[in-house]
Amino acid sequence: MGLQSPELRWFKIFNEYIDLDNIPYKCLNILDIGCGRNAKWIYLAFNLYLSEKERYINRYVGIDIDLKALVPEKGILGELAHLIVADAENLSRLLKDTYHLVVMGHPPISTYRERGKWKKIFHEIYKVLNRKAFLILTSFWIPDLIPSIYLLERSRFLIIHKGRNRYPGNQFDISDDGERLIEDKYIVVARKL
Ligand SMILES: C[S@@+](CC[C@H](N)C(=O)[O-])C[C@H]1O[C@@H](n2cnc3c(N)ncnc32)[C@H](O)[C@@H]1O
């Protein structure tokens, strides 16, 4: 599993956890929050996943606060994606369209503990979503997983799955508490009602 290319692993994640039956559009708007240097893999994975289902990417937006993370991704994706250097706290001011699918890979919730910050970000995400949109959040450890579930519920998302991801990546470290840190170890799937 660990040796698999990231877009193929994400392709499996989408197949496993997204059900497009309730989203009656051919062309979908996709949002990747805190995309970092994963934007290219997530874009490719959505491309594979949607084309197999005869659906297409209409608009692909990746947001990250860190310019350095986005420069290489802009070089690779070019015109295919709108990669924006911005704080996700300002999403509804930045974006005009509404979105059908959202990915948040490893949001660093426990690292950036600024009071109210993540609460605001999840509220902002909720605002820019289409009804019945899917959100997929992954985490490499429990300290980010638990607050993310709480924050999603507080932001009125319906959680439809939470727990171990069937398609995790590699172990890259071990926490001070002895938890094995594994890419996309946990997954939370939520919907806007
Ligand atoms: C742990 S990295 C994950 C990157 C990528 N999603 C992945 O799964 O590998 C977290 C990313 O979130 C970005 N980030 C943190 N706070 C943010 C904010 N308020 N708005 C937008 N991006 C943010 C960071 O710059 C970083 O690129």
Descriptive report:
By secondary structure, the protein is of the alpha/beta class. The protein has one domain: Vaccinia Virus protein VP39 (Rossmann fold, 3-Layer(aba) Sandwich). It has six helices and nine strands. The protein has helices at residues 6-17, 39-52, 67-77, 91-94, 117-127, 142-154; strands at residues 27-33, 56-64, 82-85, 99-105, 129-139, 157-164, 171-174, 180-182, 186-192. The strands form two sheets. It has a seven-stranded mixed β-sheet, sandwiched between helices. It has a two-stranded antiparallel ribbon with strand order 7-8. β7 (171-174) and β8 form a beta hairpin. The longest helix has 14 residues, at 39-52. The model has no long low-confidence stretch (mean pLDDT 95).
Work out the oligomeric state of the chains in this entry: single chain
What spatial order of strands do you see in the largest sheet? 3-2-1-4-5-9-6
Order of helices and strands: HEHEHEHEHEHEEEE
Report the principal-axis shape. globular
Q: What CATH first level would be assigned?
A: Alpha Beta
Q: Ions, cofactors, ligands: which are bound?
A: S-adenosylmethionine
Terminal-residue CA separation: 34 Å
Helical stretch tally: 6
Could you say how many structural domains there are in total?
A: 1
Structural class: alpha/beta
Strand tally: 9
CATH topology type:
Rossmann fold
